[in-house]
Amino acid sequence: MDFLANVAAGFIGLFNAGGATFMGLVTGILPTLIVLITFVNSIIMIIGEDKVEGFAKKMTGNIITRYTVFPFLAMFFLTNPMAYTFGKFLEEKYKPAFYDSAVSFAHPILGLFPHANAGELFVWLGISSGITTLGLPISGLAVRYLLAGLVVILIRGIVTEKITFIMMGRKGVN
Question: Can you give the pTM of this predicted structure?
C-alpha cells in the first residue's frame, strides 16, 4: 500500500515540479522576452524593415561577417535567447549555420559583455576565478576568450553551412 502511495506521490510530484518550473518561466523570463520582442519589432518598424533587412544583407553578404559580426551583434544587442531571432533576416539556407554560430558565442562574449548571457554568467566566473585566485587581471583572459570564440563560431558557421548545403543537395532543395 505504501509503495502505491509513494508511486502516486512521485507521479503527481513530477507534474508539480513541471508546474513550478512553468510558473517560474511565466513570472521570470517570458515577460522579459515578450517585452524585448515587442521593443525589437517596434525599433524595426520605426527604422523600417527595408533598411534593417538591407543592413542585415550587408552584414551577411560574405561568409566571414555572416558567422562573426552578425552573431556578435545579435548576442550583444538582443542577448541570449533573443539573439537567435536575428536569423529571420537570413536566407533559409544560412539559418542553421547562423544559429550554430550564435549559440556557440553565448559564452565567449560573457567576459567582456556579461549582459549578453547573464543567466549563465557562472561559466565565465568559474573560468576566471582561477586567474583572480592567482592575483592576475582577467581582462586579457576576457579578450582572448572573445577572440577564440569568434574563431570558433566562424569555423562552426562554415562547417554547418557546408553540411546544410550537402543535405539540401541530397534532398533536391534549392
Answer: 0.72
